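Hi there,

I know you've been waiting on this one. I reran it after we fixed the sequence typo, so this is the corrected version. Both the input and the resulting structure follow.
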Amino acid sequence: FQAEDGIRDVERSRGLGDVYKRQSKGSAILLDTWGPETHAGHFCMKRKDWLRETLNTVDEDVFLFLHHNIVDTKIKPVDQIKLLDTSLLREVCNEFKDKIRFIFHGHCHLILNGSFSGIPFYSPRGTNHAAWPAFQEKKFLSSADLAETYSVIMVEDEDIMVHTIEFNYRGEIKNEGLPDYNTWDKNSKER
């Protein structure tokens, strides 16, 4: 995930690049995790205080967006450049667990799902290249010739659906027929 400058709320960002935007199904908080001269993410006390203060002013569900991954992927080179200060973020997430409905991040260029302090998270593959989960690799980041992705997030009152769209896919898209069970060929299992 990468926030675009055109949606930054300058009054609320306090120069951190953080963003707070109210949406129809809750509030989106875009948290800047950039740090100088490193690919790893940072979450300092200033950002922690800003996030706590912002969460205290919001009286609805929050969707938290940040760039860097917050949970170890168990891929050593990827984990070396994750958000380094996760304990500070975890403190805030534990305090506001009932308010933070979902966390979205990027950085890894891997499709990832999981939870952080009991809060579900999702990460898309990325829009410019795809990584590969080389679990045995100890030194180098790995990539693969996979379709890049973006995500469509659909929020309802009680449900969240995240679709991963592989926008550079060049293969055939087939019509499988009707979803009606009675139209399926029982021998071939085709609809």
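Quick highlight: The radius of gyration is 19 Å.

Best,
R. S.
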